[in-house]
Write a structure and sequence with these properties.
151 residues; alpha+beta; four-stranded antiparallel sheet; 8 strands; elongated
Length: 151
């Protein structure tokens, strides 16, 4: 009784030892390559409208508002910190008004994670209002900037 089970187990182990690496390699080779975002290519066709190093209230962040030359309604803001920002999990929000407390306004719109020179999409109607850096880990507003200064 034990000998036939051992034989079946040995055959199954040998089969799996040959088939699994083959399937794994075939799956890895069939994957599409991940697209790498080239920042120069991302901002190709975009013209800077305004820029400022002193827009933010608490920190030095170089802010550039750019407009697409083929579609003037498309705006992006590019943020590049000039100093080390030691807050974890910073997200960039746009809001028409700024709350008095350290809480995020209810009507704030998430633009994306704060990254070095990563373009964030704005709507043309979003030009007036505030950009807010929100620390997700601390659940508080890290910094804010009025967009009117970039117009």
């Amino acid at each position: 009784m034990i000998q036939p089970l051992r034989t079946a187990h040995r055959r199954a182990s040998i089969t799996l030892a040959l088939v699994l690496p083959t399937v794994l390699l075939a799956g890895l080779m069939a994957r599409r390559p991940l697209p790498l975002a080239d920042e120069k290519r991302t901002l190709e066709g975009w013209q800077p409208i305004r820029q400022s190093d002193h827009l933010w209230t608490k920190h030095s962040i170089h802010s550039v508002l750019v407009r697409n030359s083929s579609d003037p309604a498309m705006l992006q803001v590019v943020l590049e910190p000039l100093e080390d920002l030691s807050a974890p999990d910073l997200l960039v929000y746009w809001s028409p008004e700024l709350s008095g407390s350290g809480r995020l306004p209810a009507n704030a719109v998430l633009l994306g994670p704060f990254g070095n020179s990563k373009p964030l999409q704005l709507q043309e109607s979003d030009v007036t209002g505030f950009l807010i850096l929100y620390s997700l880990a601390h659940q508080s507003i890290f910094d804010s900037a009025p967009l009117e200064s970039l117009q």
